[in-house]
Amino acid sequence: MNNAWLREIDAYLIDLDGTLYRGNEVIEDAPAFVEWLQASGKSYLYVTNNSSRTPEQVAEHLQHLGIKAEAEHVFTSSQVAAEYIKTDGRTGKRVFPVGEIGLYTALRDAGCQVVEEGPADYVVQGIDREFSYEKLKKASLLIQGGAVFISTNVDKALPTEEGLLPGSGSLAAAIRTASGTEPLVMGKPAARMIDFAVERLGVSKERSVVVGDNLETDILAGVQADVRTVLVLTGFSKREHIEGAEGQPTIVLESLTDLMKYAK
């Protein structure tokens, strides 16, 4: 296994659930891994498809689990959507959001004009636990009228103690069906999240790596962005899932401890 390239990596783009924690339980070596990143002077971002939380809320959750975190190191799918709109060539920045506080905050922080009625230049949809027929109707009509349809992420389901609940992708599917328009997807597995994260850190793709537990999201996002990847077998994807997966990891490791060992 040729892993010498890991010693040349300057920037880490790190998934959260399944990589640093599982639900409300920290993965044992996650705190030590983050401390190693800081002590080694590595650049890093926590990249998450979670669109409902603000960076401050994500950081607070990590801190509660014993993982060092600051809001400046968090990059959510809502922030990717806001960054995309900010850099898009359209002159209008009126946005009709379908989502929660994390989405609203990201859009306003990026200077977008958040509107509750049309006209709108963009419809941006994330997870919304108060989704309604009225929101679906407004979003569909605005998109049919020319608004760009953006989805923060298309995760179909959210695993909870109750079972699998509808995720952002389920809401995106409803709006897609009603409007007849495919969304521009911001979060993993789309390359945009990784592209913007690398740009935010000011590093090259050649010296960056995506670290995650999910072949279908984390690893595929890295592959599509042309960034090398580390699959850690602490979460969703298992070794038997690798063969035939669309996103093939650059390297597969059992844990973050192994990653630290090879990267030193």
From TrEMBL:
Binding sites annotated in the UniProt record for substrate: K188
Molecular-function annotations in GO: metal ion binding; phosphatase activity
Matches recorded under Pfam families: Hydrolase_6, Hydrolase_like
Cofactor list: Mg(2+)
UniProt xrefs under SUPFAM superfamilies: HAD-like (SSF56784)
One cellular-component annotation, GO: cytoplasm
Key words of the record: Hydrolase, Magnesium, Metal-binding
UniProt-annotated catalytic positions: D15 (nucleophile), D17 (proton donor)
Bound cofactor: record note: Divalent metal ions. Mg(2+) is the most effective.
InterPro entries assigned to the protein according to its UniProt record, in alphabetical order: HAD-like_sf, HAD-SF_hydro_IIA, HAD-SF_hydro_IIA_hyp1, HAD_sf
EC code(s) of this entry: 3.1.3.-
Binding site for Mg(2+): D15, D17, D213
Matches recorded under NCBIfam families: HAD-SF-IIA, HAD-SF-IIA-hyp2
Biological role stated in the UniProt entry: Catalyzes the dephosphorylation of 2-6 carbon acid sugars in vitro.
PANTHER family according to UniProt: 4-NITROPHENYLPHOSPHATASE-RELATED, HALOACID DEHALOGENASE-LIKE HYDROLASE DOMAIN-CONTAINING PROTEIN 2
Family from the record: Belongs to the HAD-like hydrolase superfamily. NagD family.
Entry protein name: Acid sugar phosphatase
